[in-house]
Amino acid sequence: MAPRLIVVSNRVAVPGTDALRQAGGLAVAVNAALKRREGIWFGWSGRVAKDGAPPQPTVLRRQRRTFITLDLTNVDFQEYYNGFANRVLWPILHYRVDLAEFTSVELAGYLRVNALFANALSPFIQPDDVIWVHDYHLLSLAKELRALGHDNPIGFFLHIPCPPPDMLMVLPQHAETVGALTHYDLVGLQTEADADNLRRYFEIRHGIAGPTREAFEFGGSYVHVRAFPVGIDTARYAQVARNAVKSRLVKGLLDSLVGRRLILGVDRLDYSKGIPDRIQAFGRFLDTQPKWLGQVTFLQITPKSRAEVPEYIDIDRTVSTIVGQINGRHGDPAWTPIRYVNRSYSRASLAGLFRSAHIGLVTPLRDGMNLVAKEYVAAQDPEDPGVLVLSRFAGAAAELDGALIVNPHDVEAVAGAIGTALEMPLEERKERHAGMFAHLLTNDVDRWAELFLSALAEARQRPGLLSGLRSFTSPIGLSR
């Protein structure tokens, strides 16, 4: 029988709550890990409690799965989440050092909440449990658990990018956060480039590298660094998309287009997503290829997040201004070139929209993976698939070689790719889609979870060595 798995993340997608919807791709990944195991999912409840007595964990059991959540005080929420996690770590890990706003108070809050999580989780941990921690909010959690005497196998997965060591070391007291990853047995990252960046950081930190540079010794303990590109539930998503095109939402959209081709972008409102550049590129496309005026509609779905953070207020204002300028320049009473929507939709609704779109425009300036790109491919009709236009700076670009790969900073190139996608013959579209879909079908989220947990078990059994376990199958069939 497999040992019990404890998953720890910033948010917990408790059944019947808004957190289930908001957790998105992380929830899919965690559910895949817990699918065949008895387990616990531990993390923040999403609620902010009044300052006062320390919040106590809430336990909810559903069959073989236990959900344990913890409220945060307002001080903890501001310093740990709004402050250090999202105004320091997020920009630095997305290569935006210029946007990081560091204070020692917020670092203290971040470390305090990691310790709070460790202390709240500690009574629930059994000696044989395997612990899997997710994402940048909890870099120092293993260090805190080790200090409490827990010698369990502990793995960590970073869902967002890992920049080169010179950027990581811009972070004041980086040893307290990124450096604390050495207390994990295995650190997983989205791409080989991300993994190599962390390896170089560990070397600078005087880690003794093994022969493959996948294991590092720090004072007698070992940490392994591997790439595990996260997948999606490909087969199920394709089925959901087939059914969702019959929904009222999708039918209403298609009726409103009156035969026009649909270009679709779906992103949370964030400066890392390249939304202003993308919209400028669409405007340039209309400027330079006037034959498409009135023939295409660009729908950009962008739910707002972190609305109280100044950088997000600024980007919202910028995007709205650019959309207005392009619509004013090219629109007419019967046609609005860009539809800009600031609300969330269910995964099923998005699957139907993806399947209906002739082009999926996924052009982040930097992204760990970007599951929207994979979902767009999975949702397509294989007999008449759309075309994915994908940023070379998204982790998905290393796998989805059938996409049109672009530099999102190059407005002219993205505009040209839109024109190429619209003109692409059916047979070429089918060939490109078939290869990408086959790759996603093989390397789905279940395989990702199995590979990570197998590698964690092996790292624990043979701490200084790795067996060469393949992390995924590349688009052209070679191990990566």
Question: Could you characterize the architecture of this molecule?
Answer:
This protein has 480 residues and is of the alpha/beta class. The protein folds into two domains: 5-231 and 446-461, 3-Layer(aba) Sandwich (Rossmann fold); 234-442, 3-Layer(aba) Sandwich (Rossmann fold). The protein contains 16 helices and 16 strands. The protein has helices spanning 18-22, 25-34, 74-93, 104-121, 141-147, 165-168, 192-204, 234-244, 248-257, 275-288, 310-330, 347-356, 371-379, 411-423, 426-442, 445-461; strands at residues 5-11, 39-49, 58-62, 65-73, 130-134, 154-157, 186-189, 208-209, 215-218, 221-227, 261-266, 296-301, 338-341, 359-362, 387-391, 404-406. The chain has a ten-stranded mixed sheet, sandwiched between helices. Strands 13-12-11-14-15-16 form a six-stranded parallel sheet, sandwiched between helices. Strand 6 (154-157), helix 6 and strand 7 form a beta-alpha-beta unit. Helix 12 (347-356) packs across helix 13 (371-379).
Mean pLDDT over all positions = 92
Give a quick account of the main beta sheet: strands, pairing sense, barrel closure.
10 strands, mixed
Cα(first) to Cα(last) distance is 30 Å
Name the CATH class of the largest domain. Alpha Beta
Secondary structure tally, helices: 16
Q: How much strand content do the residues show?
A: 15-25%
Rg calculated over all Cα atoms: 23 Å
Low-confidence stretches: 467-480
How many strands? Answer: 16
Strand order of the largest sheet: 3-4-2-1-5-6-7-10-9-8
CATH topology of the largest domain: Rossmann fold
Shape annotation: globular
Number of domains: 2
Considering the protein shown, what is the CATH homologous superfamily of the largest domain? Glycogen Phosphorylase B
Which class do the helix and strand fractions yield? alpha/beta
CATH-level-2 architecture of the largest domain: 3-Layer(aba) Sandwich
